[in-house]
Specification:
Elements (H helix, E strand, L loop, with lengths): L2 H18 L12 E4 L14 E13 L9 E15 L5 H15 L10 E13 L2 E15 L1
Parallel strand pairs: 1-2
Antiparallel strand pairs: 2-3, 3-5, 4-5
Helix pairs in contact: 1-2
Length: 148
């Protein structure tokens, strides 16, 4: 696993949860926009549109063990930041942001079956109102190993 493969796997976990969700019609006209670090412009699609943005922040990498002379294992850790926004103008901005946050949090609170990235400590952090959008952040600690 390398950094690009790890990022793609991390983002796919959220995309799969997004696609599997039944979005309540009383809060969402359609599935909210999901923006990805490095792929999408980081700006609200429209002031009255709910959306979520995911990005990865590495914390550190370290050698995990002695190598055998040919290959050395490394451990990389960091945090996924998932920012969920609900328009205050809808009258349900906080509920909209919270619903997106619950989908994101629960996506990473499950067994890591067949995945190379380990997820821990998925949690919701209230961020408050910003530019007419209620914001809920989901933070997820991750770890993966790379052999070089």
């Amino acid at each position: 696993m390398n950094i690009t493969m790890a990022r793609e796997e991390m983002f796919q976990v959220l995309q799969d949860a997004w696609d599997a969700t039944q979005w309540p019609a009383d809060m969402f006209a359609s599935k909210p926009v999901l923006l990805y670090q490095g792929r999408d412009k980081v700006a609200p699609p429209a002031p009255d549109t709910p959306y979520t943005h995911i990005y990865r922040r590495s914390a550190y990498g370290e050698q995990a063990a002695f190598g055998d002379g040919r290959k050395t294992p490394y451990q990389d850790r960091g945090t996924l930041w998932i920012l969920c926004f609900g328009p205050q103008s809808s009258g349900k901005g906080l509920e909209i942001a919270e619903f997106q946050g619950m989908i994101a949090k629960n996506a990473y609170r499950r067994p890591n079956e067949g995945e190379c990235v380990w997820y821990r400590n998925a949690r919701i952090v209230d961020a408050g109102l910003r530019d007419g959008l209620e914001q809920i952040n989901v933070l997820v600690d991750y770890e993966y190993h790379e052999t070089r």
